[in-house]
Amino acid sequence: MHVHLTRRLRSWLGGLTLVLGLAPLARAQVVACDFDVSDNEGINFYGSTAHLTGRAGASTIRGQFFIINANSAEMDVDSDGYATACDYPDLYVPPDTRINLTNVANPALAIPAQNIILVNLPHILLSGQMARVELYVEVPPGTPAGVYRGEFQVRDRVRGVTLNPEGEILGLDRVAVEVTVLPDLSFSIINADTAKLLDSLVLRARAGQRASGVFRVANQGNAPLNDVRFAATDLTSESAVGLIIPKENVTFSVATLSTMLINDTARVTVTVQVPRGILGGRYRGTIIVQGQGTASQQLPLVVIVTSSRGILFENNPVRSVNGDIGRISFNADPGTEYQVAIFDMNGLLVYTVTGTVFAGVGGTAQAPTAGADFAVSVPWPLGNGRGEAVASGMYVVVVQSIVNGQLQLARDRLMVIR
Which of 130, 260, 358, 380 could cross-link 326 (Cys pair, CB 3.0–4.6 Å)? Predict the structure, then answer.
């Protein structure tokens, strides 16, 4: 049987009075009936309070306390009286004694008292018996983080409530419950005008212009969200030709949100400065959103660029001594044919290649899939049609392709250095 600290302290003080010659302490008195909840005994139970922790939408950890029907002075844990022979036949928790668990910082918030769940509260407690009672709290989904306090009472329907000669209440005990709801930090990236989750942000612009779009960040956790930061990666051409829009060209209307309250949303504008002279096509990157204490989330960012630039060289001049090869990039509609011809400065044909622009799985020029190429990259190994290395000098590159359904003929000069 557990021995309450009060009893041990009483015994120690009683011995001290004999040593000092003081008057002895008054002994616990015999009364008609009484039961007690033992303070500071059990699990997560001290100061007559169950101290529990949990998360919104789940059960708290369990607490445990002891309820004692004392029939001796040693069992009378609160020294308000004990009965030598009194049974409690119908213990229960009166509904009107249940008090909601109220948020300490904001009394407008509360966990309903009926969410306090008692496990194995005895219906009958005989004289001299002690029962172990467990309890936990079901925390409703969305409950804001914080400390919540409430209570309930235990009584007996048959015995009722009485008073001892000093006016102390017998046959009733109060149990306080304190719940700490832990913070769950989370957010989502949603559409600018609705609460629908946003799967990607698609922008359109011409080369040399700016493209802008809007998304929102929603705090869906149960605590304020702090230090929300925004960043972006480079945007790479979907045709994988090594063409990029640098991440430095991507800016946000706010670089950081210092605080977002529960259920709050923030509107963010992203702007992409498309470089001049870049080839048209789809450029794909990622927006990265990170809040303090949360995992980062990524939002695909796609910029569809239209451009009048016909040809783009990866390197110009191309230096053979460095192991470089010529790489010729140009615009073309998915699924269409193209031809590349290279001439020396005397107008003689040196090298030619033809091909079909990849249209993606099941894609066509009229309805390209997300994986379709809108720009093409053709390698030139700095040789002629017979596989012989070409000499240093200037060469004219001519590209014939279909762009926006129209035949396009583009030409530019490429320097080769051996």
Answer: 380
